[in-house]
Automatic annotation (TrEMBL):
Name this protein carries in UniProt: TRAP transporter large permease protein
Domain TRAP C4-dicarboxylate transport system permease DctM subunit: 11-430
InterPro entries (alphabetical): DctM, TRAP_DctM
One Gene Ontology cellular component: plasma membrane
Compartments where found: Cell inner membrane
Organism: Pseudooceanicola nanhaiensis
Length: 437
């Protein structure tokens, strides 16, 4: 067998193993070891795996993963999410479909201090959905808004997906974070516009009743300020320190985790049992992410040995398809995979093959990363996998709420994400201008 045939067979075998239920990381390692053994021999395969384990995980940069995960979990238990929603509810209650818009902006701010979409979906499904239902919004719209806006957690920095992409693409984590700011704001505005269009043209989709006589919680100006201080403090420490050049990403994660711990302790929302559970969950998430990165790095090196990325680059960059033809195929593949597997797994499978092609096409890999993250996040809303949708269903604990209703509510926000994706492709500077400063 030729090296290209071995590489192609390895990719197809990996897909088959995933479809029958094998964990992604184990499947990648097994396929990579087998392919390198065929290309060289078993001894080289084992030595290469141990070398990859050492090379891929020894960097100081990887400390950023547990720190941002810990910060996100601490923020979730401290009640900062509810405070964020309360502030925007007070500010936007007189706007058309104001609670929907408040949910979007609260999610955008919450994303800036968590970086995990699932955390946003869990928090706001318990806070925003009951409040919207109380004020006459439909179940479909209320859950759809939460599902749609939760994806901001993986685009607006700090973002776990941005970290994973930066590692795989060998790009600066700080520059990736900067590149997510513009697209994140554009997507939040696109969601806001979508809500306004739905509220003015399809009122039955948004409202069960238009004569909302339900009173709002009386939040005074002093309370708004009190609730805003922890949010603004964390955002200032993490993003201000990072973008101001005072902290590198790992130091910003440490400062954010410490700040979130202080807030949780001051609010007395953190007992010993809860703190231990958070530490264990942080460890589990960190180990799973780093193991997947190790497996993806080995998979990438194996593919480089087979020459598959080079052959694909020559095929996709020929006159028959061209760079933007490749980009369209890549986006469609990412969205299709999003219907079946989770976001990190998609990136780990596809990027080792796609990155060399994108580089050969002359694409800015920072811009390409933003495109990848948005396309991947669409998968959080698409059936049958739709992780954000199932998270909301689980968090709501409402037997009358059907999963299909949440998926239908998320459709307008999927369209908004596709439109945002098109805008960023047409105007790359939205993603790159801040990263170049």
């Amino acid at each position: 067998m030729s090296p290209f045939e071995i590489g192609g067979g390895a990719v197809m075998l990996l897909v088959a193993l995933i479809l029958i239920g094998m964990p992604i990381g184990i499947g990648m390692l097994a396929v990579s070891v087998g392919a390198v053994a065929l290309l060289r021999n078993e001894t080289v395969a084992i030595r290469m795996m141990t070398q990859v384990a050492n090379d891929s995980l020894e960097e100081y940069l990887f400390a950023v993963v547990p720190l941002f995960v810990l910060m996100g979990l601490l923020v979730t238990v401290s009640g900062v999410g509810k405070d964020t929603f309360d502030v925007f509810q007070k500010l936007l209650k007189r706007v058309t479909a104001g609670l929907g818009v408040a949910t979007v902006f609260a999610n955008a701010v919450f994303a800036a201090i968590t970086g995990i979409s699932i955390a946003s979906a869990t928090v706001f499904s318990r806070i925003a959905v009951p409040e919207m239902r109380r004020h006459g919004y439909t179940n479909r719209f209320a859950t759809g808004v939460v599902a749609g806006s939760s994806v901001l957690g993986m685009l607006i920095p700090p973002s776990l997906l941005m970290i994973v992409y930066a590692v795989l693409a060998e790009q600066s984590v700080g520059r990736m974070f900067l590149a997510g700011v513009g697209p994140g704001l554009v997507l939040a505005l696109a969601f806001t516009l979508t809500i306004w269009i739905l509220a003015t043209t399809r009122k039955s989709f948004v409202f069960e009743r238009t004569d909302d006589a339900t009173g709002y919680d009386d939040i005074r100006g002093r309370d708004v300020l009190r609730k805003s201080i922890p949010i603004l403090a964390l955002v200032t420490v993490v993003l201000g320190g990072l973008y101001g050049g005072f902290l590198n990403p790992t130091e910003a994660g440490a400062a954010g985790a410490f700040g979130a711990l202080v807030i949780a302790l001051m609010r007395r929302s953190l007992d010993r049992v809860t703190f231990w559970r958070i530490l264990v969950e942080t460890g589990l998430i960190t180990v799973s992410v780093l193991f997947l990165i190790l497996a993806a790095t080995f998979f990438s090196r194996m593919l480089a040995l087979t020459g598959v990325p080079r052959e694909l680059a020559e095929f996709f960059l020929s006159d028959r398809i061209g760079p933007y033809g490749f980009l369209c195929v890549f986006i469609l593949l990412i969205i299709a995979l999003g219907c079946l597997i989770d976001s990190i797994s998609i990136m780990l499978i596809v990027l080792p093959i796609a990155l060399p092609v994108a580089d050969a096409a002359g694409f800015d890999l920072i811009w390409f990363g933003v495109i990848t993250v948005i396309a991947t996040e669409i998968g959080l809303l698409t059936p049958p996998f739709g992780l954000s949708v199932y998270t909301i269903k689980s968090a709501m604990d409402d037997p009358t709420l059907r999963v299909g209703e949440i998926f239908r509510g998320a459709v307008p926000f999927i369209l908004a994400m596709l439109a945002t994706l098109a805008v960023i492709i047409l105007f790359p500077s939205i993603a790159t201008w801040l990263a170049r400063i």
